[in-house]
Every structure is written in structure tokens, then in C-alpha cells.
Amino acid sequence: MTRRRLLDWFLGTSLGAMCLSVLYPVARYLTPPEVPEAQTSRALAARDGELKPNDARVFRFGNHPGILVRGQDGAYRAFSATCTHLSCTVQYRADLKQIWCACHNGFYDLNGQNVSGPPPRPLEQYAVHVANGEVVVSKA
Amino acid sequence: MSGEGDAAPGLRGWLEERTGLSALAGLARKKTVPLHRHTAWYYLGGMTLFLFTVQVVTGILLLLYYRSSADEAFESVQFIMTKVPFGWLVRSIHSWSANLLVLVALLHMFSVFLLKAYRRPREITWLTGVLLLFLMLAFGFSGYLLPWNTLAFFATQVGTEVPGGLPVVGRFLLRFLRGGDQVTGGTLTRFYGIHVAVLPALTTVLLGIHLLLVQKHGMSVPESQTEARTGRPSRSLPFFPNFLLRDAIGWSAAVGVLAALAALFPWDLGQKADPFAPAPAGIRPEWYFAWMFQTLKWIPSHVLGIEGELFGLLAFGLGGLLLVVVPLVDPGRDPRRSRVLTVLGWAVVAYVAAATAVVYLKHGP
Lengths: 140, 365
Description:
heterodimer; A: 2 domains; 10 strands; B: Cytochrome Bc1 Complex, Chain C; two-stranded antiparallel sheet
């Protein structure tokens, strides 16, 4: 190896190392840190009687939206309100008695099963407890 | 170049000695634009550049009042629209001009595609042009979130979830775009930085190369209009001042159109985003993403064993890649291949137009 090639090799690798030492912290900086989410296992979804049969409401389940549906029979059902297709927040269609995502026209039945449109999976179902006039929802 | 002893007198001479501007003036005198039946298409590039300048100017004006936090963004745009003198005009022109810019850029690209102006030696001009178009779409997508209204919130939710479906890199991309796992104020800050700093910096570089190459190679004359094919001597028009003045007429008309649109149809602000409200009925993205939105609706939940959204994403990615490599697919040596590409281009336009029409027929304008 000639002296010139050796110097070129040193310069080249030093330049490469310098680029890496700049790019690595930049790349890490651009990736947001993982912030541990407060684990929510229960949430107050509504007061008992607040919802009439064949009605629903979106409630806050930790950092995520949940949906509490009261069926025609008066029974409560609760699900994650995040559509399994592209994460829009779903709503209840009283006229169709189905849960609907307005973004891409996805439908779920009252068991959270995806029945038509693009959603690939059912909605996550939560357990519902009614006690002391409160409708409390917890992870099933 | 003039030596130290023979400079022209006066301010002009002083400037010339220090800058050598006469060389530029000489270039401007030499630059010509070919005249033929397709010359009108040459104006689209200048129009795209003009509308981009309008975006830069109105964007800088909006920056003076806009606040990029989830608590203040919506209110600051409301303040611009209702309290700041001519704020409604500046914001509406920014929004309308953004839409016209995308439209004109698309027409510019398609005219270059049909006139086969991407062939040797203009492959890099095409490449930078396509990348600039992608940047304009990124400007549109990132700017859409900035008013922090319901439509923007869900458009961003969907738009960032789509790349999130990619295997291996999906989760990284989703978190990189959102600045976390959810669309929050952190996403807004990130989109703001991308919209006003990252994209303008990239655009400046690519636009510089694009314009430099256009100057270097001159306007491409379509094969059907060459002297050899028409049998007539080719004609041309001096760029300065003849073509530039014609350009200026178009730009003045564009200012008029923008002012009329902004005055007659001020850009709506909508409702403030509420992450715990359902997506509203009739939700849809800007018109230039409408065909993708409709395609995502049409694709069933599973295609060929993979999830529909991933299938859609792969199809869009492949389409974008095809656009980039057009000059490699048709270098101009095989007329049959060239015809197939033209037909394919028209088919894509027909599909995009049909899918867009379906969205607007279903949901209204």
C-alpha cells in the first residue's frame, strides 16, 4: 500500500466515522422516547340511566376512546372505540343498530364483530359492571 | 470579463466589476423557447413556481400569528381569520393556492409525461420534478393538520396509520411521524417543524437542481414537432422578455383567481379537534388524496392473505416507484413500449378521476 492510499483510507474512515457520530444522535433524537402509559384497567363510562336503550356514548378509557352501547334490550356493552382498520374513532348508528366507522365505512355488530367494510378484526370488548348507579367498564 | 482598468463608468460599471452580471444578461438573451402547437404546456412549470412563491409569502405571513400547540393552534387560526386585518384573505389564499399548486403541478407532470420530455438527457429533471411533486403532497398533508380541527385530526390519524401497517419498519414510521403512539399535540409540533423547516429546505435544494437542469437542457421539443418530422424550419421565441411577459400574464390571472376564490369561498376552519369524539360522518381528505381514500374503502379487509390496508399501501408505493422510473421504462428506443406507457398513464388518470368523482358524488362538494 502506498503512503497516499493509506492517508486516503485514514481520511475516508475518519470522515465516515464523523458522519456516523453526527447521524446516530440525530436519528435517535428523531425517534420519540417510549413514555410508559398509565395502565388503565377501569373507567367510569356513564351514569346508569344516562343512556336510553338504542343509544351510545364515547368515553375516555385512559388515553384511548371507548364506546358504551346500550342495546334495545337495555343491556350495556362496551368496546374500544378505535377502529381496527385505520384507527378512526367509531360511533353508534341507532338507525342500523350497528357500530360504524365514518372514515372508511366499516361496520361492527353489537358484539364488536367486524361485519362489513374494510376493518380486519373485531373491536376489543370490555367488561361492564353496573353498581351504585354507575356504569363502570374494565378490561375483560 | 472586464479587467480592472476597463470597467464601464457609473453604478453599472461598479456592479459589473464586482458581480459579473453581464454574463447572466447574456445567458438570458440567448435563452429561447421553441414555438409549436404544444408550446402552451411550457407555461405550467412557471405557473407551478409562481404558486409556490405565493405559498412561501403567505406562509411566512401566517407564521407571524400561528401557534403550534394543541391548546392554541385552532384558536390562533381563528384569531387570524376573525381579528387580524386581512387575516382571512391571507389564510384563504394560502389554502386555495396550495390546492391550485397541486393541481398545476399534476398537470405539469402529466404534460411532460405525454410529450415524452423525460427522455435522455432529461431523466434527472424528471426525477427531481417527481420528487418535488411528492414534497408538495407532503406539504399538503402536514399543513392540513396545523389548524387542529376535527377533519385534520382524523385525516392525520388515518394518514399516519397507513405506513404503520408496514412490516418491520411500520411501528417505527408511525411513532416517527406522530412523535409518539397517538396523534397528539406532539404530532402537531412535529408536523409544524416538517411543514415550515424540513420540507422548505428539501424543496429549495431540489427546486434549485430542477431549474438549473431546465436551463442547461432547454425546453424539450416533442418528436412530432421536430424539423425532421414537420418539414418546416423550427421557430422559437426569446425567453426574455417575450416568454416571461406571457408568463406574467398567466401569473396576474392566477392572482385574480386566487383573490376571487378567497373572497367568494373563504377557507372553512371547522370544529376544534377532540381526540375523544367519533369521526364525523362525511369525513374525507383533500381532493388530491380522495382517490387513495376511496381505494382504501374499496379494498376488502384481506387480499391475497394480507390485510387490505397493507395491500393498498404496497400498491400506492409501487405506483409512486413506477412514476419515478418512467424514463428508465421508456428511454425512447422502442415505440411500442412508449405507446403502452402512454395508455397506462391514461388508465391511471381515468382511475384516479373516477375514484375522486365517486367520493364527491357520494359526499357532495
